[in-house]
Amino acid sequence: MTENVVVQFGNEVARKDVRFFTGEALAFHFDSVPTGASVAITIAEHSHQSPLLQHVTQDSQAVLATDDLAALPEGQSCVYNIWLLANGEQELVQYGSLTSRSTILPENLLGMTTEIFSADTPPTLLIDGDSVMAHTGFRDLLVSTTGDVALVPPEYNQAVGGHTIIDMLDSAGSVIERIVPNNTIVVVGPIGANREMNATVENHRTQIQDLFDRYVAAGATVVAVPTLPDGRTSAEDVNPYGNDAYYAELAQIIRDIAALNPSVIAVDVSGFDPVTMKDDRTHPNVSHGATYLAEQTASTIRSLVAGNRMDNAANRLGALATLDGDTPAAATGVSGIVPTGWQATRAVGTGNWTISRGVNNDLIVSITDAPDKGQLQLRADVTLEAATGEIFDSIFEVSVDAGSTGFNGIQTLTIDGSILGGYFDVAVANPPTETLYPHAKLVALTADRTTVPAILRLSVAAGGSVTYRVTKAGLFKVDYDLGTTPVILVPPTNTSLPTIDSMTPVVGDTLTASNGTWSGSPSAYATQWLADGVAISGATENMLTVGAELEGAAISVSVIATNTDGQSAPAVSAATSAVIAPVASAIVAWDSQINSPAPEQLAYSDNDRTVSATAAINGMRHTRGATAISGTVYFEIGATVGVNGLGISGDTIDYATGGQNGVSRCYWSGAYVFHTGGSSFMGSGNTIADGDIIQIAVDTTTSQFWLRKAGDTDWNNNAAADPATSTSGFSCSGMTGAIYPYVNLKNDAAAQVELHGSSDRITGTAPAGYGPIG
Q1: What is the pLDDT of residue 143?
Q2: Phi first, then psi: what are they for 765, rounded to 5°?
């Protein structure tokens, strides 16, 4: 069987869609072919690819046999064009779909080529559209997979969430002013996802044509991304703004425009599956959708550029570009080899990185079971004369092994460059499967330099095991007009990392983070607390209350600083020790067994933490703690009322007798402290008054003790005395056996003393190296 298609040569280009069954032949019948002219038929999957089938004839008909059509993919859309070739010119006569794809110019009939740009002078890449184009999962991957064929200027991203085609037309001037005539690619899309109420398809046809015409007239090539299906049919659609049938019409409009304008290229998104590639009806998901869209768009862009920057542009790295030569690694946390002329350093984290050679001489950089978020930096400094305002771009060819886990980003920069497409702390497919060409945003040097570095940073999340393969490196001087006055973007740079005030957190603690210190005069900071390197949801303030769900996790904090020139790379603090559960404090009490015979003259309360005189008291009375002191210990005694003396004692005292000074007890009474060496004056008027809290530090290993009132600065009334350094303490060397807290109450029925010997009762700060009794 044969499907017949009639082609008429008129004043207007005709469109006719052709459907045929597999196994049929196609016969094109031409009406009035001009004398001496030829007719060409081209069929292809995409407008920017070579034809799958091409037929040229001067006859009145062309028959494409079944064998000819076997080259076409079965059940898949293709496009066809019919061209009239006469007097060295070509004229499109008819176009349509054999599948649902855009039209294509005939190749090698009139010396035409699908490659529009050259990597020697790479095109500028700009992005316009709505939130799908602005999404970092799409945008960063697109930029990093086209870095070897395109340049990305400052403010390259003009896509804004919620933009309709009207919004894009209104803001087109911002894109046009960045277009380098005849050397710019503008990625636009997905048009129509945000629809004005009551707008028709024909309204959009006119508006889309207008937008594309403006960019093409300014000298750009438009790479158009159709609206992605969301699985809504017109029958079940409850959204007045769009459904898949409507989106399909918009996609056809884009293909129609591309068929007639070689400066408009439609991206093929026929493989987009809304079921697996969207988590909602609006945006492609990171794991599949954004990656697929970026791959399709990058493939379209790459097909338009002849060569690549790594091989065709003047690489200032010279012999360093291939990362040859093996020098033993010497930096902390880095083992194996380092390419000759390069430096390898661990920039973030405490994990150990290994660098080795692959079978193809590629550089293998890996880390296994990273203990925390980590980053390894490769850097080469190139000697050259670089002037203020000149622009340099560093690019690397990097891939990530498929079995990697915890891929956490790639950053590339020069000394004054802004990181671009770094993936750092950005949700992307993990790990990416494409070869990446991360590069720096175009930024002018801020000062004359005699060296310019190329810098690559490879990252891993806590617990991850990642293997990177670095194949090539490049440093290129870029001839790009950033304006009459060079645009010098200097985002903040971290000079000292953020810190956390407590590195041994306990559930229930409140941690406070500092921002660290920065150059570049930041105007704002963004804080994100991390547990084992993973962001804690909602934890974006500088204080964090440690919840029970964080038990066992190491806590760190990431800070991003912002100024008028942009955002910094994240600066991540050192990680704390693992969060532990709170330990119930032991009850540190007086020994309630120490008392007079009935009637008892002492009373114990508050789990024996408080001792009080009773009405039966008839003299000074003594007691001591129930728990012995050992090592370096800090406790407090609250002299509520009627204290005659307090300090430390042995276990020989009883309620009526304190024993020998300096042997049985060492204590502060009146203005003197009695100790093994005798007595020491605490200063005129420096006596224990009702309501005072006395702080006491004891070091049983050196037989010294120190006392002071809460609020005083000096221990032992001596500026040189310091328990933390074990200096100028009073001696208790004459005391033998166990040592306990001690108090002597006055002969006063109102006398009362409290013992604060556990962490929940102590109100002051213990000297460094000292802990509570229990």
Answers
A1: 85
A2: -105, 125
